[in-house]
Amino acid sequence: MKFWIGAAITVVVGVGLPLMPLNEYLFYAGYMVLSFVVLATAWNILGGYAGYVNFGPPAFFGIGAYSAVLLFKWLQAPLVVQIAGAALMGGLLGFGVGLLTLRLRGIFFAIATVAVVFIMETLMVNWRYVGGATGLQILRPPVEVFDTYTRMLFAVMTVMSVAAVAIARYIQVSWIGRGLRALRDSEDAAECSGVPTLKLKLFACAVSGALMAAAGAPMPMYLSFIEPASTFNLSYTIAALGSAIIGGMVHWAGPIIGAILLGTLQQVVTVTISSEINVLVVGVLLVVFVVAAPEGILGLIKKYFPGKK
Amino acid sequence: MFSLDLLFEALLFGVLLGCFYAAVSIGLSVSFGLLDVPHVAHPAIMVLGSYGTWIIAGKLGWDPLLAGAVLMIPFFLLGVAIYRFYYEVFEKRGTDAGVRGLAFFFGLAFIIEVGLILAFGVDQRSVEAAYIGKSFQVGEYRIPMRMVVAFAVALILTFSLSFYLSKTFTGRAIKAVAQDEPALRLMGANPVRIKQWAFGIATGVSALAGAMLIIISPVEPAIDRLYIGRTFCVVVLAGLGSMTGTLAAGLILGIVESIVLMLFGASWAPAVAFSLLLIVLGIRPQGLFGR
Known about the structure:
The structure holds two protein chains of two kinds. By secondary structure, chain A is an all-alpha fold. Chain A has helices at 2-16, 24-49, 57-75, 79-100, 106-125, 149-173, 175-185, 187-192, 197-216, 219-223, 228-231, 235-247, 253-272, 275-292, 296-304, and strands at 136-137, 225-226.
C-alpha cells in the first residue's frame, strides 16, 4: 500500500512539475535520469534477480528507438503507439536472447549479448529507410497541454519509470522472483525442485527487453535525431549495469537509487567538466563498488543501519 | 561481379588477416580459455599496447615491433598485478564471482578506453616503419607488406606459445591448472602463482598484439569494442585454450570476413565476427577443437 501511495505521488509530481514555469534544462536532464531508472530497473530483472549478466542494453534501447522511428516515419504514429510498438519489438528480441540462456551462462551469455548489440547496429547502419549510418532528422509533431515537447517527454518518462518499478517489484515479491532467485543460486537444484526455469528465464528476458526498448522509444523524439553509433553505444550498458550494481541488485529500490545517483552525477559532470569524464566516473564508480561494496548502496545501508529496512 | 580471381584474392587476404586475428586472440586464449578469467578487458589492454607502441615509436623512433616487444615486460607485470587483484577480490571470496568479475573487467575496459581518450583524444593514431605503406606484387595480386609482417609475427607468436605450453615445465603446469586445479594443489604446486604467471604472459603477449594492431591499421581508443567480438569469436571457435585451434579459428574468421567484405562491402564487416560468435555459441559452445 505504501508503495502505491509513493508511486501515485511520484506520478503526480512528475506530471505536475513540467506544467510549472521551471527551467527547461531541468526536464532535459531529468528525462535522461529517468530513462536510466527504467533501463537499470529493467536490467536488474534479468541481471540482479536471475544472475544473467546482460551486456546488451544498447541493443534493446536501440531496437526501441528504431521501432519508434519506423512507426513514426511510416504511419505517423503517436508517441504512445511508438512506445507500445517498441516494447513489443524489445520483448521479441528479449525472447530471442532468452533462448540463448538454454545453452549459455555467465560470460558466454554476456558475450553473446554484446554480439547482439553489434549485429543490430550493423543492420541499422545498412538500412537506408531509417537513415543508415548518417542518421535521420525527425520533425517533432506539435505538443498539447505541455509547453514544450521535452516537458511532455519528462512526464511520459516519469509514468514509465513508475510502471517499470512496479513491474520489477511485482516480479521480485511474487513466486516469479523466488523462482528467479532459486535459479540464480543453482539452476539444476531449482529445476529439480520443480521451478520452471526455462519459462521463468524467457519471461524475465522478454519483460526486461520490453522495458529497455520502451525506455529507448522516446529517445529519437527527445533528440529529434537518430543515428546508429550513439544509439547502440555500449555506454548504455555501463549505465544500466553500473546503476544496478552501485544501488544494489537484490531489491527493486537498488537500481532506482543507483540510476538517480549515476544519472544526476553524469548530467552534472557533463555540464561542468566534459562528457568523456562522465563515462570515466561511471567506470571508476562501478569498479570501486564491485570491489569494495559488492552489495551496493543497499548493502551498505543494511550493514551500517541494521535496524532499519 | 563474382569471379574466381576475386575469390582467390579474398582467400589470400583472409589468410593474412586470419593469422593476425589469431595473434590478437592468443592472449585471451590463455587468460580466458585456460584460466577461466572473464577477461572482457583484453582488447582494451591490447589497444593500450598500441598506444604504448605509438608513443615509443614516435618519440624514440624505434621500430613498432621492437617497441611492442619491449612493452611486453611492463605489460607482463601489469598482468600479474591484475590477476593478483582479481584473485584476492573475486576468486578467493568465491561467492558470485561471475556477475561481479564480469562487471569488474567491463568497468576496467571502459576506464582504459576513456583514459586513452582523455590523454590522446579520439583521433586515429598510426605509426611509421619501412614496411608500412609498401606492397609487393605476387603474380597479379598486390599484397601490402604490413599484412605480411603481421602474418609472420603472428605465426611466430602462436607457435612459440604453443611450444611453451606443451614442452616446458611451467607451460605444462599452466595447462595442468586449467585441467584440474585441486589435483595440482595436491601435487604441492601453488595454482595461484602459476595462474598469475600465465596471466602475465597473456597480458605481455597483448602488448605485442597491440603493436601489430597499430601496424595493420590506424588505432583509436574505442576500437577495442570491435575486437571484443573478434577475439572472443576466435577463442570460443577454437575451443577454449587450444593454441593451434586459435590459429585455425583465426583463419576461419579472417577468410569469412574478407569474403563478406568482398561480396557486401565494408559496412557489413563488423557484424561478421559477432554473427559467427553467436552461431558458434548457439550451435557448438565447446568450439571446434575443445579441450
